[in-house]
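This section describes the prediction task in plain terms. A model, or a person checking by hand, is given the sequence of a single protein chain and must write out its three-dimensional structure as a string of tokens. No templates, partner chains or ligands are provided. The sample shown here is typical of the held-out split.
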Amino acid sequence: MKVDLNEAQRLAVGFLVRHGMLDAHAHVVADHLVYASLAGHGFAGLSRLLPIAEYLKKRGPGGTVRTIHETDKSALIDGDNVIGYVTSLMGVDKAIELARTSGVGIVGVNNSWFSGMLRYYVERAADAGFIALHAANSTARVAPYGGIDRLLGTNPIAFAFPAEKHPLVIDLATASMAWGDVIYHQQTGKPLPEERAIDGDGRPTTDPLAALGGAFLPWGGPRGSSLSVIVQALGILAGSDPVIDDAGKWGYFFAVIDPALLLAPEGFKRSITTLRDRIEASRPSDPARPVRVPGSSSRQNIEVGRARGWIEVADEVYDAVR
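The expected answer:
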């Protein structure tokens, strides 16, 4: 169903506050969920409210986020069990602050959970004129390539580069499916695509519940699995547990770089714009499908969605949240 953007924001904030989240934190989370819905990722939108409520029952709203250690180029932040949508925003903003003064900002955030679309954070840095890298590990739900045990998180990684008009943003998961997407399939009664998950005995499954009890498969076979291990290690650098259980500490790693360290910023932006334009002007293998740079569909979806003023929410999700 179609839900007005302001109504979606109010609905999300009211739901989260009712389930114990601080009002200020609820507004941060709601803004992110609406953004994810606008981007076309329904599984990362309002459907996340239901699992967030379950986690709030188990973990509570958290305490006071504090900086454990800081230098002129780095900071380590203890999230004190506050949801990752809030702590990640604090983390990237701290990295931007450091990069403004020293050229580089390296920030780790730990003792937190759930952080949504990584694009949301790196885009914020690129809009401010910086290059950004963000990696986030999470609860172990993915089996390493060739295995059947849950040892890795879905472990997304994202990059953003400032450019003319809008930044170049690349956000990808290292698992064949995001955890929220599996939950979304369960909520809407849809089977999973083939070859995305295994059950607890290592047998292929399309049943979301069986997948949640088993493991997801890595994206891209051994290469995706290798990238997932890299993200897991960067999360450990940020202070996470090596393998994260349901009550464990996730780790968020941010690196924000001022391009002026190497090149004139405006010249760099023009070059990134040229790269993007050349890719999208290149010859497609299918004439009916033009070549697109990664992340362009999400950006266009956001622009169109904001202009029309509403998002699409699955009826099952809307009814459950209401």
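For orientation: The CA atoms of residues 45 and 178 lie 13 Å apart.
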